[in-house]
Specification:
single chain, alpha/beta, 2-enoyl-CoA Hydratase, Chain A, domain 1, Rossmann fold, N-(1-d-carboxylethyl)-l-norvaline Dehydrogenase, domain 2, 3 domains, eight-stranded mixed sheet, six-stranded mixed sheet, 13% strand, globular, binds (2S,3S)-3-hydroxy-2-methylbutanoyl-COA, multifunctional enzyme, NAD, oxidoreductase, Enoyl-CoA_hydra/iso, lipid metabolism
């Protein structure tokens, strides 16, 4: 079947795009569009043109795979198609699903845009490190004004049809798209076509220039280090100053400056990595995942509350269980507070918040007789979890999936407490569970395909980004985290101040440096986890005793106002007492102070992540390098525009990672040594993880 078909319906030329899965603007689609537009514009009986799509969505933008090959430059380009539309007969875009990127930019060169109520438009190029390169910054600004253009294009968000109509980004919302589109086109044919969007000026008159400064400030805060947001702001600002032709030229130059950049490459990698992470090799694709309608949550602490909210928001009936009735009541109060906050901030309507809250009820194990899933979120104590799972085994239907939210305990040991180990799986939510996107699913050696498929499918319903991990201490994310935070302690032993280390990490793009992160998580909590880990530390390896000294001095972190920093009124400031403790450790260990450049600090913090990630690939804990990137972007705030730690490691060079790992192996012990996979890749001159089979 052709990618584009053409049919004259009376005096309307109907052009239909059929290019699954998302009608991307591939060369084939552009060629078909060009041919169909030429036919419609040349036919004297055709008075108006309608562009529609088959399948699940309107055009979702340039074909990202073809973009990587530079095929957007092959004729006919999108610009040529747009010129045929803008100067041709009256044309209408009939939008269902999503009109995104080049798809919405094409719609902007039609004379009108109509959509179904559940459709959305958007210009998400910023998520690829790009900007709308086919007039989107110029036309949307001239259609809806710079404030709306800044909000939509800098965020890259999808705009639901109702809001798009309000903004003027579409002209009508209809129920029967094809019928309405034909009627609209016939009306159009009977009257003079409106001025092309690019020629409209009313929305760019009398602009307050401060909105651009404010946008720059927000971009610097929200996407520190990302290049595309600033280029987008410049294009929108120029759309209010320049003529249409000059504005389009300015935008093209800015687009060309971003295209092929490191950030564009990294974000394109991330786009596909996030989608690949949902595909589990060996999982029978046709496996109809168990549909989760009723769930139990065990534990009403911070994690249990967040998980209950996430499930209820997805329309799932939740039974919240805590054997401590006071804790249960507190938990329900806190959940109510979450919904009040969500409604107050407009994240949910009051009705939606109330409806979701109604789905969460307190109960006991006796109320779990009909559940499809239970998520256990009890304290991180193995014996307690095993007792709970044995009880769940007796209280829930045999088909129910039993998930544990543990952040590092052994899934197999928990599963062995039940008679259904094949239905036991790790479901590691990140705190706060109703906000953080990552859901780290952990399969034990006995976890079956049904449990994995059900939880992968549930993740999508919950709006989570799933990554499947194997069963080990710390799974994918936390197993690597200890090297990042561990290095920060070794740097402090050399006299590098906490605020310097954090500043380097934050300039690199992390939302918070490793030392401040320690304070946030609680130094005392880290000391507890390390106590377990120290039992299995290889011979000759050491961990810095700084954390233990801090806890001995009563410095637990943000929770008691003093850790590596002082915390007063929500502000953090350097703490001389912490500096004294660190100096004491260095002197006791006879570690000399030494200088490090920012680059050396950056490499010491982030290169060990790459080495440990390679070990996880070797051990089968992570399936692909991209999965590790997805975990770190969504669970730890690793800058998405660097692609993730593994993509970053690949871009700095595996030889450099291995060289530093050799030095660390000598200095800190065997766990820091370069893993055989990395050494082999360096020896064989392998340049990418994909070449290495990951
Ligand atoms: N090009 C190529 N493949 C794409 C694609 C695209 N634009 N969008 C999606 N896919 C693939 C995706 O990899 C997956 O493949 C399958 O389609 C289903 O995707 C000129 C330069 C449209 C909201 O950034 O946001 O236009 O894994 O799982 O959840 O200025 O896809 O099945 O093999 O995401 O229903 C701008 C990106 C491009 C839109 C659908 N457009 N896509 O979500 O399905 S740049 C975008 C999405 C551009 C112009 C510039 C979503 C979706 P596979 P999916 P979904």
């Amino acid at each position: 079947m052709n990618s584009v078909s053409y049919q004259a319906v009376g005096e309307i030329g109907v052009i239909t795009v059929h290019y699954p899965p998302v009608n991307a603007l591939s060369l084939a689609v552009r060629t078909g569009l060009g041919e169909s537009l030429a036919r419609a514009n040349a036919d004297p009986d055709i008075k108006a043109i309608l562009i529609r799509c088959d399948g699940k969505t309107f055009i979702a933008g340039a074909d990202i795979k073809e973009l990587q090959k530079g095929w957007h430059l092959k004729n006919p380009t999108l610009g040529e198609i747009q010129a045929m539309l803008e100067t041709g007969k009256p044309s209408i875009a009939a939008i269902h699903g999503t009109a995104l990127g080049g798809g919405y930019e094409l719609a902007l060169t039609c004379h009108a845009r109509i959509a179904l109520n559940d459709a959305a438009i958007g210009l998400p190029e910023v998520k690829l490190g790009l900007l709308p390169g086919a007039g989107g910054t110029q036309r949307l600004t001239r259609l809806c004004g710079p404030a709306a253009a800044l909000d939509i294009i800098v965020s890259g968000r999808q705009v639901p049809a109702s809001e798009a109509l309000q903004l003027g980004a579409i002209d009508a919302i209809v129920t029967d798209l094809d019928e309405a589109a034909l009627t609209f086109a016939r009306d159009f044919a009977a009257r003079p076509a409106p001025a092309p969007v690019i020629a409209r000026n009313e929305a760019i008159a009398g602009i307050d220039p401060d909105i651009f400064a404010a946008a720059r400030k927000q971009a610097a805060r929200k996407s520190r280090g990302a290049e595309a947001p600033l280029a987008i702001i410049a294009c929108i600002e120029q759309a209010c100053e320049l003529t249409p032709a000059e504005g389009l030229r300015f935008e093209r130059a800015e687009f060309d400056g971003l295209f092929g950049s490191d950030q564009h490459k990294a974000l394109t990698h991330y786009f596909f990595a996030e989608r690949e992470a949902r595909k589990i090799p060996g999982l029978p694709g046709e496996l109809a995942a168990v549909r989760i309608e009723r769930a139990g949550v065990i534990g009403t602490g911070t994690m249990g509350r967040g998980i209950a909210v996430v499930l209820a928001n997805a329309g799932i009936e939740v039974r919240l269980v805590d054997t401590n009735s006071d804790a249960a009541k507190l938990g329900m109060e806190a959940i109510k507070g979450i919904y009040d906050g969500s409604a107050a901030r407009g994240i949910q309507t009051r009705d939606a918040a109330d409806a979701a809250l109604k789905r969460i009820k307190l109960g006991g194990y006796e109320d779990l007789g009909e559940v499809d899933l239970v998520v256990e979120a009890a304290p991180e104590i193995m014996e307690l979890k095993r007792t709970i799972f044995a009880r769940l085994d007796a209280s829930t239907p045999p088909r129910a999936i039993l998930a544990t939210n543990t952040s590092s305990l052994d899934i197999d040991s928990i599963a062995a407490a039940t008679a259904r180990p094949e239905r036991v799986i790790g479901a590691h939510f990140f705190s706060p569970a109703h906000i953080m996107k990552l859901l780290e699913l952990v399969r034990g050696t006995t976890t079956g395909p049904e449990a994995i498929a059900a939880m992968m499918s549930l993740a999508a319903r919950l709006g989570k980004t799933p990554v499947l991990a194997g069963n080990c201490d710390g799974f994918i994310g936390n197993r690597m985290l200890q090297y990042y935070t561990g290095q920060s302690e070794f740097l402090m032993e050399h006299g590098i101040a906490p605020e310097r280390i954090d500043a380097v990490a934050e300039r690199f793009g992390m939302p918070m440096g490793p030392v401040a992160l320690r304070d946030l998580a609680g130094i005392d909590v880290s000391v507890l986890v390390r106590k377990e880990r120290m039992k299995t530390l290889p011979e000759g390896e050491r961990m810095s005793p700084i954390l233990e000294r801090m806890v001995e001095a009563g410095r637990f972190g943000r929770k008691n106002g003093k850790g590596f920093y002082r915390y007063e009124g929500g502000e953090r400031s350097p703490a001389p007492q912490a500096a004294a403790i660190i100096a004491g450790v260095a002197s006791d260990l006879g570690i000399p102070a030494r200088e490090f450049s920012d680059e050396e600090i950056r490499d010491r913090l982030f290169m060990p992540l790459v080495n440990e990630g390679a070990k996880e690939l070797e051990d089968g804990i992570a399936i692909r390098a991209g999965d590790i990137d997805v975990a770190w972007v969504n669970g730890y705030g690793f800058p998405r525009w660097r692609g993730g730690p593994m993509f970053w490691g690949q871009s700095v060079g595996f030889d450099k990672v291995a060289e530093l790992a050799r030095e660390f192996g000598e200095r800190y012990g065997p766990r820091w040594r370069p893993t055989p996979l990395l050494e082999t890749m360096v020896r064989d001159g392998v340049a990418t993880w994909r070449e290495a089979g990951y």
